[in-house]
Records
---
Amino acid sequence: MYQSTITITLRPSILDVQGKAVELGIHTLGMKEVENVRIGKSIQMTVNAPSEDEAKRITEEACKKLLANSVMEDFSYTIKSV
Amino acid sequence: MYQSTITITLRPSILDVQGKAVELGIHTLGMKEVENVRIGKSIQMTVNAPSEDEAKRITEEACKKLLANSVMEDFSYTIKSV
């Protein structure tokens, strides 16, 4: 059994309005040192696969088919045995 | 200058309805091996701090005051010099 941790981020060229709003909020709280806030998703899931390669294949298929929008988002993942 | 990467996850005892919906979607696509999908946020930001300790302090303050809901969510972060 494997634990996949997927991070999905907006591509750098895409304007992150949610990030801009959060950045403004952080500045309003007095933390002017913070810049370039970008917000993405972090997805954890368990994959019942017989091997790490198979767990990778399933994770990648889930990202491509459902979790990430390949036009606007990039994804990366790590897999560990549990 | 430091790059903070923050991961915010729902506490394990909190029902993740968004995760359940995504899990159903993944199963509908035929990937029955996937279980326990939980969805959190991943936040990247640049911190203009003179030292790593100061960058940590600012990141933690932003998490506690704004980014994470301490009743329902846990946060973790990594900091690297850029």
---
Amino acid sequence: MDYAPRPEDVRFLLDAVLGASQQLARLAPFAEVDADLQAQVLEQAATFVGEVIAPLQRDGDEIGCRLEGGQVHTPPGFAAAYQAFVEGGWPSLSAATEDGGQGLPAVLEAVLYEWLAGANHGFTMAPGLLHGAYECIRHHASDDLKARYLGKVATGEWLATMCLTEAHAGSDLGLVRTRAVPQANGCVRVSGTKIFISGGEHDLTPNIVHLVLCRLPDAPAGPKGLSLALVPKVLDDGARNAVQCERIEEKMGLHGSPTCVMRFDEATGWLVGEPGRGLAAMFVMMNAARLHVALQGIGLLDAAWQKAHAYAQERRQMVAPGADRASGPSLIAEHPAVARVLDTQRAWIDGGRLIAYRTALQLDIARHAEDAKAREAAQQWCSYITPVLKAACTQQGFDGASACLQVFGGHGYVREWGIEQILRDARVTMIYEGTNEIQAIDLLVRKVLPDVGAGFAATLLALRDELDASRDVDADAQRRLAQLRYLTTQIAMAAHAQPRLPYELADDYLRLVMVTLLAWAWARIEQAPGAGEAHARAAAAFRRWVLPEFDMRAAIIKKACEPQG
Amino acid sequence: MDYAPRPEDVRFLLDAVLGASQQLARLAPFAEVDADLQAQVLEQAATFVGEVIAPLQRDGDEIGCRLEGGQVHTPPGFAAAYQAFVEGGWPSLSAATEDGGQGLPAVLEAVLYEWLAGANHGFTMAPGLLHGAYECIRHHASDDLKARYLGKVATGEWLATMCLTEAHAGSDLGLVRTRAVPQANGCVRVSGTKIFISGGEHDLTPNIVHLVLCRLPDAPAGPKGLSLALVPKVLDDGARNAVQCERIEEKMGLHGSPTCVMRFDEATGWLVGEPGRGLAAMFVMMNAARLHVALQGIGLLDAAWQKAHAYAQERRQMVAPGADRASGPSLIAEHPAVARVLDTQRAWIDGGRLIAYRTALQLDIARHAEDAKAREAAQQWCSYITPVLKAACTQQGFDGASACLQVFGGHGYVREWGIEQILRDARVTMIYEGTNEIQAIDLLVRKVLPDVGAGFAATLLALRDELDASRDVDADAQRRLAQLRYLTTQIAMAAHAQPRLPYELADDYLRLVMVTLLAWAWARIEQAPGAGEAHARAAAAFRRWVLPEFDMRAAIIKKACEPQG
């Protein structure tokens, strides 16, 4: 009953639908990364995830992490598995070769992290921030810091954290109080308490590199006064730095990952990037991290789907409508209510994947395209679509896991089958890396509305052009893209008289965008060479059960934008 | 932060909106149960639930139940609290006075159980099946069995269980294998293993009365071969019967209630009702039980709302749109996304309550009205509306608790605030007493479609007649009632060509009915004397964010009913 990655499903989406190989071949660093090499990497990743990581899932939940004398012990097997993960070169999959990485595309790394989350969400948290930390150090740290930390972080020899949240500063990072006091020797002394630090302390690596959002003594209040400091657990001379794990949280799930309260007592650190530019440096980490959280939602949903699908192919209850009564009880997969759940979740999994993999490909293009305009367009895509994916895929990860749990009836509610763990683990993805409500506001208020939707519309043109208006489903998707554009304008106009309106409608707008993207995705998937019977069923389920949300969200938005009596 | 019942909220709905006192006064047994007496009962219930039951919630989850040597130990304080519950006469609230009960209306009992679930869902499971067992024994048991068991069950001195599910027989009870072999002395020997038995074993009462679905040796296969046996834990002579708790389940939540695997080894029992009529006898229990499960959903949602509301009135993050920047971060309650969650959940809580209390009143009418037609009409209402409430209120209990958890951000995911427990506890209500999918099929396929919706339409006429078409919101609700009727006919017609269709659409249909009922509820609540500012906000939230689901479900149904190419 362990989750098993299915590389053939993913390769169909990458090769037959997205033409990933052709796109990557145009980028200089990936000239050699042909379809065969990609397939090989994915096969190896699938084997590693399925054989090494997935079997640790249950103990990760039931035994979990414990804190003893300031030391965090991860669940049985995690340390050895992490060691194997490093030795396999997986942490450095997309890191540059000059930093000791594999130099492979971000899109392959995205697939790896989706699978890791499906196999073992708790374990995945450990290396989950590594790549973001690597990018952050690479782009913002001094040469000296790079020389000391970049290689170790690139290879995963040392793990990293993002220390943002404080007890009183969650969504509002402008309230962060942790102080960093510059010293004569160029370091800073960092003091403060951070909460919700995933992997703040553990026994997986000999050192941990904390990236800490903090405030210099003379800094202004609010987000513009924030700086970023690198604070290692262990200093260059081997001495322990003044960083302590004070507590690990008792959580609803994700017991395989220690969520730490970290106290910094004049800990030694060094600024990364300019003073007052801490949030900007952090954002490098956050965009990649948000895409990975979206992929966690998809991975968790796929894990839940695999369990429910297997159960529905074994369990018999009642004669399904239309089935032969003489054959006795039917497989529950044959009951319409169960088939609907399974097909609908597949529509979300493969549709969500296609959009997420497309976004990961855009990350590769944004980093490596020769043409500045192409880089800019790809960057724009990531900026708009990442919050949509983060919110929608994590919500579906939770809601869909709940629907899959329901397939088990009472058996779903007991630990034995492992499905309730997925639901508990998945819940956090709607919260961390910016709550889903923050994602919606980021999309609509911060990104789309400032230019009245012009930039967003331009970005979405690429999708319209990939559709063929002579086919019904394509034409339908195009019509929805146009309607989305119209509704964007409506919100922009109504916001003049009702300044709270965009904040009220942000969730509806984000859902509208996601359903539109899914309409594009299913038009593409269904017609790709090699699409199978399961794809046809998922496409039909999408149109019957998911797509109607579009009109509902559109109606909510239209009504709210009517002039107020 | 403990949940506290708010009797004034409930009395507004009962008195000002439903006119419960006038309706009850027309029923002979309640001639004396005036508004003052009702108010007094509710005040006492609120105090008891708030002071005695709510404080045990956390230990119920964290310490939970344990099985040692066949004996189940309930969480600290549960046994004493249950003793106080019995001494207060709460288990027997609506039992007949001749059986030792209080003879009060079912609607008051419904409120009590909603509050109990909000305060402590795990504790509530213990007495939760008592009233159903009482009704079952009262209507179906022999005089001898009644003399021995009815009084003890009526007063709650002994607790009761429903033993239905077996490992291979969940939703499909026709597969039940437990055998009952008649003996010369009139008893039966019951053998088999039942799973998911809430309170199958515990330390709350000296005896436990199991009502066991079983099969006589000569019984036909399937549901018509099922009989019901009463099997006590302790026999009349004080000897222990051959009933053992083999295991208690490790569950996602509801740790305060032991979910037992019960083994019967030729245990002594007696048939309740006719052989082969076991399901019919059980249904007496199940209809009342399903309404109570709906009320659990509402109670849990209200508990989640109370926590989120309190937190939103304390926590400050970011300046809300339109707020004065100079005053610093706003209360999160002032942020539109948070206000939307809180107002929408209130719309579900008070709207759901109104429909549930109306249904409980119909239970009273069905039992006690002098006029047979009035009894029949009330019975019809309960038959149609109970599955709607069970499915929709429990789904909202879970989804709404998740929305309330989100208000806490990361703090919602840790145990400390207690909100994640509500989410874990609430999940089971969507499964037990018939999964929500079974409820939907029960409504549409078994009850509505057989007469092409005529009986259901007749039942809903009562709602139409309570609305005043000269008011906009009333006219809107009436229009939806008419549309519901039209769509019912559409499904009935389309089902001829597509026999699976009603099963596929059952969930959409049930949701459509629920949103229609809520439209009626909010038209009534908003215009009742004494409706306040919070009601106006919830009514507006209902119309903005909940009501649009009606058109979405209607569109799904319409599209599915189109003739197939």
